[in-house]
Design brief:
5-stranded mixed sheet; 26% strand; 337 residues
Length: 337
């Protein structure tokens, strides 16, 4: 877990796919590259090892721009390269690299690494932070912010007009960096999709050209507020087909992402008489299952209108992280947070 810090790009690194980085780098690596504007743009990729669009976009961005010199200094974090080598989100019994940024007492080496990065970027007067991710389910491309101040929304608007505001889960990179500078997470669809790579690379081009972010809030945004995280208890079995399980989710569950679902929408069938209750928590960590979901007539249904995001069919992700999130629309005229 020791962080390697470099002041130049290792020869041949841009030729490597994400799965090969772990054969050439000892672990997480922070690379500082020179540019014409002094305050660096911080970019993190591969915090989840199987989310490879960020690295693909960075390779293209640097290949295009390094020969003539970068507009702005760049600090590039290559995160969980060992998980990337295995094609995994995270290593078994290892930390989730996007849950360690606000304290990780169970992983003290990761906690030390994160503090080293934050201290270094504070010292370098970081200009803005971009953390690049993929989804496992079907979702549009969107940006996430943890603060609704104009500068953060302007940074998000550079990626697109769909923005998600969230406070949980804690420990994500963008929340930690939001205390230093405008910070976003960008979600670029599923790994390996060419449009996602192109979108992320063009966004890096745009961000590297910016000189400041002012006080004017963009007015053309669709802002969603994440109000709950949905998790499946470890003791419950689940599937998306005809298996005899505790929860048989709708086979097209991920097609519901960013769709305004009316109250009474069926999310899963419950073929047993066992009283089931998913873990549904709000921004404060409080149990809000009964506010959002209910089981009736053998079906798990929504109690109120909701908008899902990041609902996934990937069983490994459901077990490691969550089933997905529930959102509401957030009025742009609301006071910034």
């Amino acid at each position: 877990m020791m962080l390697t810090v470099l002041e130049n790009l290792p020869a041949g690194l841009l030729d490597l796919p994400a799965t090969e980085l772990g054969n050439h780098l000892a672990g997480p690596t922070l690379i500082h590259l020179p540019g014409r504007m002094a305050e660096p743009l911080f970019v993190s990729v591969l915090l989840h090892g199987n989310e490879t669009t960020g690295w693909l976009a960075v390779r293209e961005f640097l290949a295009r721009n390094l020969p003539g010199g970068l507009n702005r200094r760049l600090s590039l974090l290559l995160g969980n390269v060992q998980a990337a080598r295995a094609g995994l989100r995270m290593l078994e019994n290892g930390p989730d690299f996007n849950r360690i940024w606000e304290g990780a007492p169970e992983h003290p080496a990761a906690e030390k690494m994160v503090q080293q990065i934050l201290d270094e970027m504070r010292r370098r007067r970081v200009f803005a932070s971009i953390d690049i991710h993929n989804n496992t389910g079907r979702n549009p491309h969107y940006a996430c912010v943890n603060r609704l101040h104009p500068a953060y929304l302007q940074l998000a608007r550079g990626f697109g007009n769909t923005v998600v505001y969230f406070l949980r889960p804690r420990g994500v990179q963008s929340r930690a960096f939001s205390t230093l500078c405008p910070a976003v997470t960008v979600e670029c669809g599923q790994p390996g999709e060419a449009p996602g790579t192109k979108h992320a690379r063009e966004y890096l081009e745009w961000a590297s050209r910016q000189t400041s972010f002012g006080d004017q809030r963009p007015t053309d945004l669709d802002i969603y507020h994440t109000v709950a995280i949905v998790r499946v208890p470890e003791s419950y079995s689940f599937a998306f087909d005809g298996e005899d399980v505790d929860l048989r989710f709708h086979p097209d569950l991920d097609h519901m992402n960013f769709v305004e679902l009316p109250a009474g929408t069926t999310l899963a069938h419950v073929p047993t008489d066992r009283p089931l209750r998913l873990h549904v928590t709000d921004e404060s960590g409080a149990d809000v299952y009964e506010r959002f979901l209910a089981i009736a007539n053998g079906q798990l249904r929504t109690r109120v209108p909701v908008i899902p995001s990041m609902f996934t069919r990937d069983a490994r992700i459901i077990r490691q992280d969550c089933l997905g999130y529930l959102m509401e629309r957030y009025p742009i005229e609301s006071e910034p947070i």
